[in-house]
């Protein structure tokens, strides 16, 4: 009987709690969304699997000595994984559309309004009984509005690691829901005539301009906002490797092998933070609500900035492309293109939308640097 009792006590069933069971269910839901609905599958699938692993009783995978614990300490706590992801993203990014029409920088910057609106909203939620966010936690939550998963993970790991799981799930879930969240806002703030505006063909961009751009961005970052240098620096290095044309092997490795391996480890390490104790809280619900608000405000701000520019511009800008400033490359640009085609079957906006889209990537990194400077001290 003692042997049978010992055997029972070492089974997962004997140590299973309702909270762990719920979180295993959450992990399986994330896997389902990734496989069946293809919602950000590259991240949601390993995050969901990591959530299942970390909630298995007695496995100890997220305790000192466990594989998930090691991945988190090595890659997330240090910020290494998100920075390596930014290196790969930089190597995959083409700034031609932005350089051909520099005004798109303003749209990418305007869309970051959602970040700072969410910061205010997170602080305001402290009036709700049972919710209490510090400035650091509010800043980490706010970055969800940048629609940039690696940036959200990096900032939350630096300011509020206890909220990392909820913030990462919210960021990637809402990025996957861009085709659902953005179109109603786009239609509400624009007329069919505005959505049908055709934009002039983009002018060609020289190779010299493409090479100089990441270097100039890095120099400006170093001079004005050093706290954003880790993210922006890795992004610019990846882009310089792409555009220089002399390190194709490194560029292709950053775009493929490196980013693929890091994505697996990053997803598992983030999923490891989805334990019942840290996720099943009132604060998590607040984070999910604030994340949705951030996307709506960011989309609206980008569209309204485009309409404002049209008041002073000789060349008309289709306000839809302002919605692409929330980053979420290239999904937001595709959504813009789809809405443009709905208004006019011959209105192709994809390349134009890529301008504010890649500007949004830089904008979210800069916003993260600002939040880190404000709340990190």
UniProtKB/TrEMBL annotation:
Q: Name one Pfam family in it.
A: OAD_beta
What biological processes does GO assign it? sodium ion transport
| Reactions the enzyme catalyzes | oxaloacetate + 2 Na(+)(in) + H(+) = pyruvate + 2 Na(+)(out) + CO2
State any single GO MF term. Answer: decarboxylation-driven active transmembrane transporter activity
- Which superkingdom heads the taxonomic lineage of this protein's source? Bacteria
The record describes its membrane topology as: Multi-pass membrane protein
Q: Its Enzyme Commission number?
A: 7.2.4.2
Q: Which cofactors does the annotated protein need, by name? A: Na(+)
Name the residues that span the membrane: 15-35, 42-61, 67-92, 104-128, 134-156, 163-181, 211-237, 258-279, 285-304, 316-336, 356-375
- Ion transport among keywords: yes
Enzymatic class: translocase
Q: Does the keyword Transmembrane helix apply?
A: yes
Q: What InterPro entries does this protein's entry cite?
A: OadB_MmdB
Q: Which residues form a coiled coil?
A: none
Q: Which GO terms describe its cellular component?
A: plasma membrane
Major site of localization recorded for this protein = membrane
Record's keyword terms, sorted: Cell membrane, Ion transport, Membrane, Sodium, Sodium transport, Translocase, Transmembrane, Transmembrane helix, Transport
Compartment annotation: Cell membrane
> Quaternary structure per UniProt?
Heterotrimer of an alpha, a beta and a gamma subunit.
Family per UniProt? Belongs to the GcdB/MmdB/OadB family.
Q: What does this protein do?
A: Catalyzes the decarboxylation of oxaloacetate coupled to Na(+) translocation.
Q: What is the protein name stated in its UniProt record?
A: Oxaloacetate decarboxylase beta chain
């Amino acid at each position: 009987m003692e042997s049978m009792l010992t055997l029972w006590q070492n089974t997962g069933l004997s140590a299973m709690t309702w909270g762990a069971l719920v979180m295993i269910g959450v992990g399986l839901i994330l896997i389902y969304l990734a496989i069946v609905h293809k919602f950000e599958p590259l991240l949601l699938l390993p995050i969901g699997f990591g959530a299942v692993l970390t909630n298995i009783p007695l496995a100890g995978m997220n305790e000192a000595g466990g594989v998930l614990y090691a991945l988190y300490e090595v890659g997330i706590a240090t910020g290494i994984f998100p920075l390596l992801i930014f290196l790969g993203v930089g190597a995959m990014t083409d700034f031609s559309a932005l350089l051909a029409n520099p005004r798109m920088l303003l749209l990418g910057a305007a869309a970051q309004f959602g970040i700072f609106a969410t910061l205010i909203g997170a602080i305001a939620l402290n009036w709700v009984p049972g919710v209490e966010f510090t400035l650091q936690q509010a800043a980490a939550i706010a970055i969800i509005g940048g629609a940039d998963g690696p940036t959200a993970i990096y900032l939350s790991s630096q300011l509020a690691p206890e909220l990392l799981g909820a913030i990462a799930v919210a960021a990637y879930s809402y990025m996957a829901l861009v085709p659902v969240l953005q179109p109603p806002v786009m239609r509400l703030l624009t007329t069919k005539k505005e959505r049908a505006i055709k934009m002039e063909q983009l002018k060609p961009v020289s190779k010299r301009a493409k090479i100089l751009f990441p270097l100039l961005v890095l120099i400006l970052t170093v001079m004005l906002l050093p706290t954003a240098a880790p993210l922006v620096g890795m992004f610019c290095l990846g882009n310089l490797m792409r555009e220089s044309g002399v390190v194709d092997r490194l560029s292709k490795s950053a775009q493929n092998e490196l980013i693929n391996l890091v994505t697996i480890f990053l997803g598992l390490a983030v999923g490891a933070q989805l334990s019942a104790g840290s996720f099943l809280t009132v604060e998590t619900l607040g984070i999910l609500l604030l994340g949705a608000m951030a996307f709506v405000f960011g989309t609206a701000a980008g569209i309204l900035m485009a309409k404002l520019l049209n008041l002073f511009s000789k060349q008309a800008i289709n306000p839809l492309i302002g919605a692409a400033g929330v980053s979420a490359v290239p999904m937001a640009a595709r959504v813009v293109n789809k809405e443009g085609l709905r208004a006019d079957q011959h209105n192709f906006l994809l390349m134009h939308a890529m301008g504010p889209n890649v500007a949004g990537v830089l904008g979210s990194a800069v916003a993260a640097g600002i939040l880190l400077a404000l709340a990190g001290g």
